[in-house]
Every structure is written in C-alpha cells, then in structure tokens.
Amino acid sequence: MSGDDIDARLDRLATQPFRARFQLRGRDRAIAELRGPQTIRRHAHQLIEQRLAPAHPAKDGKQTPYRGHPVFVAQHATATCCRTCLSKWHDIAPAVALTEQQQTYVVDVICRWIGRQMSSTYLS
Ligand SMILES: [Zn+2]
C-alpha cells in the first residue's frame, strides 16, 4: 500500500473520536524522539510479531497498553491494537496468523502515524 493510501486511511481513522484522542505526548513522545525512526520501526516489528501476529494472540483485545511505548499509542490511534480492530478497520481476517506482508503493512501504518505526530523530518 502506498504512503498516500495509508494517509487516506489514517485521515479516516482520525475522524473517529475514540481514535483521535490518542496523541504522542510526554514520555512516549520523548522515546520516539530519542530512539529515532529506524529503531522505532524495529520495535514496531518486534511488538507486532509477538503481540498481534499470532492467530490467537495472548489476551487479545487487552494486549496493548495505553502508554509506555510510542508504538502502543500508535496502535490505538490506528486500530491495530488487537485482532478485532484489525479485522474491522484493515480487513485482515481474525484467527489466522499474519503473513510477513500483513505485518509489514501494520508496521507501515504505525510508523506513518508516529511520523505524522513527530514531524516531516521524522518521516523521511
Ligand atoms: Zn483493538
């Protein structure tokens, strides 16, 4: 999916009051600043692989904290927090392990959202 398509999807999600409440601030924002885009992307890959990609993730629906890492905040903002939201908003079927390609898509969405929160230099 292209950057423009992801932006269109993020714009649509931002019209949802529940999703729009999530912003990068405080310590979560500081982590994104300090670590930089490449490290955050690597973290996103690891977190998604462990917590979202399995066919039946542990504590699905409650596996994503509301703070503690910028990727967690991004997951709530982008509806990539659990398999139910992923199915509803991103057309990814539940109860089947995510493919590599689907994981990359989720990571792209998360990192795009973080980049939009930070600045244009963070995105490039
Ligand atoms: Zn969810």
Q: What structural keywords apply?
A:
mainly alpha, 0% strand
Write up this protein:
With 124 residues, the protein is mainly alpha-helical. It has one domain. It has helices at residues 3-13, 17-20, 26-35, 37-51, 70-77, 83-90, 100-118, 120-123. Helix 1 crosses helix 7 (100-118), helix 4 (37-51) crosses helix 7 (100-118) and helix 5 packs across helix 7. The chain is globular and about 35 Å long. The two termini are 17 Å apart. The mean pLDDT is 95. Zinc ion binds at residues 81-82, 84-85.
Oligomer: single chain
Instruction: Identify every distinct bound molecule in the structure, by name, code or SMILES.
Output: zinc ion
Q: In which range does the helix fraction lie?
A: 55-70%
What is the chain-wise order of helices and strands? HHHHHHHH
DSSP strand (E) fraction?
Answer: under 5%
Describe the structure concisely.
The chain contains 8 helices and no strands.
Question: How would the blueprint of this fold be written?
Answer:
Layout: H1 3-13, H2 17-20, H3 26-35, H4 37-51, H5 70-77, H6 83-90, H7 100-118, H8 120-123
Helix pairs in contact: 1-7, 4-7, 5-7
The structure holds zinc ion.
